[in-house]
Amino acid sequence: MTDLSLPAGLVAVVGDEGTGKTRLLRELAGQAQETPSPGPDRDAVWLDLGLPGLDGSTPQGVWDALRTRHPRWNAALLQELAQALGLQPHLEKTLSMLSTGSRRKVALSGLLAAGATVTCLDQPYAALDMASIRVIREFLHANADHPARTWVVADYEADENLPWRRIIQLG
After folding, report:
1. How far is CA 57 from CA 51, 75, 161, 167, in A?
2. 13 neighbors 154 (Cβ within 8 angstroms)
């Protein structure tokens, strides 16, 4: 695993295509190999926001799988996010019936509700409408000063609307 000191709050990982942003997030979450193996001292979570291979699952199925792996799961936060991101009409649908943006909103809701010490978000705004981008940005902004949790956000550039504790430039 990459030995990387992460402060609590918001950390941006930025770089061009192919510079290793996703690889770094997966390493931080202990998912760099086929078999995930988070380090004993790190409670971290990362998901491919496209949710590949889960076409037959429902949003609730995705969230249930995450809930079983994360003891600090926040069901109330999940409901708030699902409502704010407009997922309520899609809860009974399989992921194969959802747009790319809706699939990503399902994954993002689950990641944010997981309650992990380190939450890794890979290009969280991609394929989202502006209202959903605002919801995610507001969540991150509201948690920017959290004393014990870290949100690592990988993208081409650091969102200038957020108060980053650290920006890591790759490439």
Report:
1. 10, 19, 34, 35
2. yes
Q: Which two tokens stand for residue 102?
A: 């809706």
Summarize pLDDT for 142-151 with one digit per residue, the tens.
999 999 999 9
- Contact status, residue 95 vs residue 56, Cβ threshold 8 Å: yes
Q: How far is CA 123 from the centre of its chain?
A: 9
Strand order in the sheet with 166-169: 44-46, 118-122, 150-155, 9-14, 166-169
Distance of CA 70 to the CA centre of its chain: 14
Q: 26 and 81 in contact (C-beta within 8 Å)?
A: no
Strands (E), the chain: 9-14, 44-46, 118-122, 150-155, 166-169
Question: Looking at residue 70, which CATH number applies to its domain?
Answer: 3.40.50.300
Dihedral pair phi/psi, residue 115, rounded to 5°: 75, 15
pLDDT tens by residue, 85-132? 999 999 999 999 999 999 999 999 999 999 999 999 999 999 999 999
Q: How many domains does the chain have?
A: 1
Q: Which domain holds residue 60?
A: 9-169
Asked if residue 134 belongs to a domain, the reply is yes
CA distance 120 to 111: 8
Say if 3 falls within a structural domain: no
